[in-house]
Prior knowledge:
alpha/beta, Helicase, Ruva Protein, domain 3, 2 domains, seven-stranded mixed β-sheet, 9 strands, 19% strand
Amino acid sequence: MPPLRDVINEYELQAKKSLGQNFLTDLNLTSKIARSAGDLENSIIYEVGPGPGALTRGLLMNGASRVVAVEMDHRCITALSNVSESYYGALTVHEGDAMKIDELSLIGETNGKDIHIVANLPYNVGTALLVKWMTCEKWKPWFKSLTLMFQKEVGERIVAIPKTKAYGRLSVLCQYRADCKILFDIPRQAFIPPPKVTSCIVQITPRDEDENAPAQKTIERVVSAAFNQRRKMLRASLKGLGVDPLPKLNASSIKETARAEELSIDDFCRLALEYQK
């Protein structure tokens, strides 16, 4: 296959800010990302925003049996044909908006193989896609793990602990259902064009859902209300849910003067169960 920089030049793949594009070109890094995703040989990889195909190459070079990719930029669809041809059909690329796609319909028959999502997510939709995947009603979900690139600030929000500035809605929605960790950073210089910030690779592994866990929609409502006015005490911020929050807080053994960032994941789960009654 031709070098990535030649592909970018040949197909005039100047990154579009409107699509949140920053093309990763370091194949050593893409191989490292691929290896960190686990056993690829017995897995199907779902990739969003492959661009000119750096991470796609890394996944296939490291043994992925099948990669299903979604790309909005038509220029990249054509550029990825070289990768598809070199790997004899192991890569399927669909043109479309990942926010609107039914992933399982797109992936089709799995023949018992696990599905892993591995992607250098476009900066402008990365968080929205993560929330989409983490808030599906049925749990465990259709994917075995997520290995995703984010701006480091977003990665720190995903793994943040209570009583820290980064801790918020995204932290709870992810950690409520999964184990989350930052694997390593990606320097600005690894991209064309270099973004203004450092990126990082975050891995999220879903856990079995506790039989006593609150419904996803309930905990999302409670968490959103609590962090929507994070500087206010919970006795005030939770009033937006339409009922007196004091009995709910007391039943959950949570102080009415506490603020959202002080609550642990378990605290939010207990509180959500009270709102579910």
